[in-house]
Every structure is written in structure tokens, then in C-alpha cells.
Amino acid sequence: MLENSDPMPLYHKLYQLLHQAIHSGAFATGAKLPTEKQLQEETGMSRVTIKRALDELALEGLVVRRRGIGTLVQYAPSPLQATHAPLRGLLENLEEMGRNTQVKVLQIKYQTPPEGIAAQFKISPEDTLLHIIRRRNFQNGGRSFAYYQSWTRIKNFPAKVTPFRSKPRLQLLREAGLVFGEIHQRLGAQAADSNTARELQLPLGHPLLTLTRSSYDRRSVLCDLLIAHYNPELFEYQMELRRE
Amino acid sequence: MLENSDPMPLYHKLYQLLHQAIHSGAFATGAKLPTEKQLQEETGMSRVTIKRALDELALEGLVVRRRGIGTLVQYAPSPLQATHAPLRGLLENLEEMGRNTQVKVLQIKYQTPPEGIAAQFKISPEDTLLHIIRRRNFQNGGRSFAYYQSWTRIKNFPAKVTPFRSKPRLQLLREAGLVFGEIHQRLGAQAADSNTARELQLPLGHPLLTLTRSSYDRRSVLCDLLIAHYNPELFEYQMELRRE
DNA sequence: CACTATTTGTCCGTATGTATG
DNA sequence: TCATACATACGGACAAATAGT
After folding, report:
1. Confidence band, pLDDT 50/70/90 cuts, at residue B83
2. Are strands B182-191 and A207-216 parallel, antiparallel or unpaired?
3. Which residues of A touch B2 (CB under 8 A)?
4. What does the pLDDT look like over B23-76, one tens digit per residue?
5. A46 CA to D12 C1', in Å?
6. Whole-number Å distance between alpha carbons of B244 and B233
7. CB-CB under 8 Å, B90 with A244
8. Record: contact B189-A180, CB cut-off 8 A
9. Nearest to residue A147, comparing CAs of A160, A157, A162, A137?
10. What pTM did the predictor assign?
11. Which of B132, B148, B28 has the alpha carbon at shortest distance from B77?
């Protein structure tokens, strides 16, 4: 019944179980939860543990506990917290983003990429690529919400920070002679590693929205790879679809 | 740094983080994980805690630990071929996905939506909408990778499961008389809550890719809201961009 | 060959959190 | 409320294996 490979405190397991039961509508609003004694018999846990789980539900406002009465459900079943969309700071497209936000270049130099990257570029392990790391935040020293790493197959690019203050990266690359053909993007989600967590001021393991953009030249040779990590609370991808 | 809403042991949190990183291919087979000391500095945890997380990975066979050497990834990079859905183009293309996958309808009935949903539809709190919950998995009883919830403003829709076996949801809605104009999509990331975690067989708090699609009729009135949660290890959104 | 730096393995003591009766 | 037992997390110390000088 409560088999869970994850090590988790007993009281929290029970809390989750009841939390889910209430949300799924198993207990209607106003209904009475099993008493501490009943739960004790059903689960085999001690009464203190049961009490702690019920107290956490009460603290959250999901139930109300009254001595001599029992534990009553106080909550109208809602299927999910999917309403968690405050619609703040949503940015319609990448170009407009530049107006309200600014980019800081953290690093720019030629480096030998990690194995997986080198494989995608089909280069030998000792070859170098232009490696740029950037971070985007809201203007006026606002919070950071994006962390970019890019690898580019380009020769003799001046590894200086200054030009990035005025022009976007892709534009600089085009001015340096790169010509793009197909561009392929993938959107996914990942847990924040320690590096990204630090840069985006998030706890370790926090969900991130990730974008991987592969840009090819006219002969379908990969020449630019961008890996972006976004704080999903401050940024989401938005698009309009129209029937034709 | 590690805010804990869920009481989960630190060592297990780190274990999960590394587990996911290895599975996602962030560390190639044979690659060296950060040393205990490096992880100690990056995460701020004590060495014993770090060690326990690494030991669990070793016990599982994902890594091999050698004193004087370090911790080496032993895992053959998974046959990860995430399914993908095209972003641009007609919605119908999205249904091509249906060839390798199948949908199970978990619930279909008229319900009063939670407050946040009702607000988006601009209906009064006691009005009902058609509420459908579905789950998509790979064929032949394969793993589930998507969990859908939808709210639809439509009258007298037969709340039966059977038609969904042969036709996609949007097509059924159109056949029932709905006409769509603008459609708005947002892609983000969220941590798995207990409900979604169970449905997708993922640990609590696992990063999920989320899609919210708002469909409006010809008069720009919201008539359908779809909230989708994806396992990012099995599914990602993909799009092609072309210079014009 | 020794010497050193690195890295993991093992052990100690202590403090706090969890769970029982 | 209390006493007890166990798990978690910390910091420190030392030993053993490895690689490079």
C-alpha cells in the first residue's frame, strides 16, 4: 500500500496519501476523515505519526480538526495546481525579449568541447570550438532567468565581450561570415545542476525549461549549438497557432 | 541553498539529481563524475552525504567507484529516443504521434472547475465544464509519458470513453460543433506533484515539460483549455526553423 | 625507487530529526 | 510528555589505492 522506493518520512507518506485522496475527491468537502485510531489500525503507524500527518493537512488548510468531533475536509476538490499561471513576465518572442532584458557574457573563448558535443559536430576530441556562456536577466539588475551555453564552429572570432552589449549573438556570427540554412530546436525539461542552480539562483534540482538549438549551414553541416536553461517561473515559451 | 518543501533526505536528492544527469547523457559512459570534494564544494553538503549518494549509484550499477581514481559512469547511454511533436504547423500533425502511442481516457465528466480555471473561462464558480483526463503511453503497454487534463465549454457532449479510442479529442469536439479560431500555446517546466508523479511513474518533484493550450472560438471566447504534462526523458517538443 | 597530490574507504563523535511505546 | 532507538547530516581524522614527478 505504501510501498515507495524513495526514503521519505512516514508522516509525510501518510500526508501525501491523504492529500491525494482528498484532491481526487475520495473524501467530499465536509466529510469526516478516519479517526487517528482508525488510521493507526489501518496503517500500523503510531498515533504520534498519524497526528503529525493530519496536523500538516490542517496547517495547509485542507482539513479542520476539532476535538471530540474528528477531522473534517475543508477543501473543494481541484484536480491539479495547474492554475499556477500568474502570467507574469511572459515574453512573446526572442527579439522583443531584448528590450526588457539584458545579457551578460560570462565567458568567451576557444575550448575543446566535451565528448557529446564533439560527437554532434563530428570533430576530433582535440579540436576547439568557440564557447560562449551568457546569462540573461531582467533590466536594472533584476533576477536572472536564462543561462546560455553555445558552441560554434567559426575561425578567428574575436573573443571579446564588448560587442555583445549592443548586438545579439547570432547577428555577430552572421556578420563574421556564418550563413545558416536549417535550424532545429528542441524543448524539454531538466533538473538544475549545481552550476545552473547557482547562476539562476534556484535550489539544486529545480525544474528548468531547456532549449537546444542546432544551426546548420547551407550544406547541412552543424555550425552552431545553443543550449539554454530557463527558470520556468520567470520564462515560458509562447506561440500562436492559426487554422488555415 | 536546498530549500526543502518535501522532507526528502539530502543524500537521496543528490542521488536523484545524478541519476537523472547520467540518464540524460550529461555524463558519457566512462566519463568521470565530479569528485566527492568537488561535489562538496558545489552543493555545500558534507562528504559523508555525498558519499552515500554516490554509493547508491554504485550499488545500482550506474557508476563504478575506485579509490585514487574517482567515480566512473558505467551506464550505457540509454536507447533514449524521445518521441517528439512538431511545434509549427497544423495541430493535426500532432496527432501523427498517435501511430506509435496510445491514449487511455481516465475520466470524462462534467465538473465545476477550480477557481483559477473558472476565472480563465470567465464563468461563475458553480458552472460546469467538460473535464477529461487522459494518459498517453507507448504502444503495447509501454511506459506512460504524457498526462492530459482538459476543460471544455461544450453542451451535451456524451461523456463516454469509447469514441476516444478511434478519434483524437479535438476532432470529436469539432464534430460536436465547436469551431476554433485562435489557439495559444505556452511551454514551461514544473516539478511533478504527487498525482502526476504517480501517473507517469516518476519520483515526486521530477522535472516535467508542461504545455498549456488555450483554444478560442471565432469570437475570441475561450472554449477549450488543455494542460499537458510530459516526462522529459521520453518526450520533447521539436521544431524546424527556416530562413526566408 | 621514494615522494607527493588526489581520491575513495573507514571510523569517530556530535547534533538533530524521525518513530515507537 | 517522556524515554528510547534509529536515521540523517555534519566535521574531522586517518588509511589505502592510484597516478604523476
Report:
1. low
2. unpaired
3. 203-204
4. 777 888 888 999 999 999 999 999 999 999 999 999 988 999 999 999 999 887
5. 37
6. 33
7. yes
8. no
9. A137
10. 0.80
11. B28
